[in-house]
Amino acid sequence: MRDTRAELLAQGEILVRKRGYSGFSYADLSQVIGISKASIHHHFRTKEDLAIALVAAYDRRYDEALARIRAETQDGVTRIEAYGHLYLNGLEQGLGCLCAALAVEQDTLPDALRAAVARFFDKHVAWLVRVIADGIANGSIRADADPEAHARMVVAMLEGALLMERLLAGPHGFTAALKAVTDTLRPAPTGRQ
Asked: Nearest to residue 64, comparing CAs of 77, 48, 82, 81?
């Protein structure tokens, strides 16, 4: 049996990640899925309703991935590398970050959607703050790292590299940028001053 709602979410996400919020319409979605615009409205009354559902589904997938990363290792740098690979997976599919694509249009987004995107990023910064603080505590991240500032730097670098490397060097460029940022967090080798 066809799960039209799931198809709408999957294809809607791809459209937003490629074109942005204002760059797609229900007509585009109708054409991709092969149903009428009225059928789409049956599942998502407005484009805002659809976008909020997209962010919620994306957020849930990230929650699961972040929990997996925390469970798999205690090493802070390894956790950040694994987090970066979540972005790399999107790049390999030719897709940007859903929430970054929406954030670019923050001034034109409906308030509820803008708030959902802000919550997504706030959650990621908070997760990284914990990862960095835990890494400092267990010695896997350099002791003088500022968890809040470095968490914001990691998110900003990953989002920027994802945007830029979709246009320039692709996965190779992204991987080099990720290595550069994680190298800044590694403790100095023992014996180095």
From this structure: 82
What's the chain's length in residues?
193
Q: Structure pTM? A: 0.90
- 160 pLDDT higher than 80: yes
In the chain the domains, ranked by start, together with CATH numbers, are: 55-183 (1.10.357.10)
Give how far Cα 115 sits from Cα of 53, 68, 127, Å.
13, 26, 18
Looking from the CA of 155 toward its CB, the CA atoms found within 13 Å total 20
Residues 6+ apart with CB under 8 A from 83: 66, 69, 128, 131, 154, 158
3-class secondary-structure state, position 46 = coil
Average pLDDT over residues 60-81: 96
Report angle CA 39, 120, 167 to the nearest 5 degrees.
80
Helices within the chain (DSSP H only)? 4-19, 26-33, 37-43, 47-72, 76-92, 98-103, 111-138, 147-167, 170-183
Residues in Cβ contact with 190 at an 8 Å cutoff, skipping those fewer than 6 apart? none
Q: 193 Cβ partners below 8 Å, 6+ apart? A: none
